[in-house]
Amino acid sequence: MYHEGNRFFQDRFDTRRLADRLEERLVLRAIDDEDRRFIESRDMFFLATVDDEGRPNCSYKGGDPGFVRVVDERTIAFPNYDGNGMYLSMGNVLHTQAVGMLFIDWERPQRLRLNGMASVNFEDPLLAQYHEAQFVVRVAVREVFANC
Fold first, then answer.
1. Rounded average pLDDT per 10-residue block, the chain, 148 residues
2. Domain ranges for the chain
3. Fold observed for domain 31-146
4. Rounded distance, CA 100 to CA 122, Å?
5. Residue environment code for 80-106, b if the CB has 16+ CB neighbours within 10 A, otherwise e
6. pTM for the whole thing?
């Protein structure tokens, strides 16, 4: 999970053991039932992507609660609707696939991170369930963990 940059700061501030322990105890490679309920109850999330030149982008994605579906313990799906026509996030997904997602409950202090590899699907079977969606994005889960 950690690269040289992370390790530099962990060593500098003596948090490597803590970071390793947090990864061991909190970072999951699949979505459990509690995280499924949380994800599917949200009406929005933030989506972080990066383009092929390393330029980051972060966007808001929203819908009715349940618009993000947990397909199985290693896959989630969400619809894409026409926004401003720039397709910054979706263009990045098409080229680099890497995504970071942050789900937040604004009423309670609860946040969940999900990192993975995304794909754009124009013929996805879920597309019919999302009125006016252009396509469905599926994310293969790499890591899921509480954001403190």
1. 97 98 96 98 98 96 97 98 92 98 96 98 97 97 94
2. 31-146
3. Pnp Oxidase; Chain A (2.30.110)
4. 21
5. beeeeeeeebbebbeebbebbbbbeee
6. 0.94
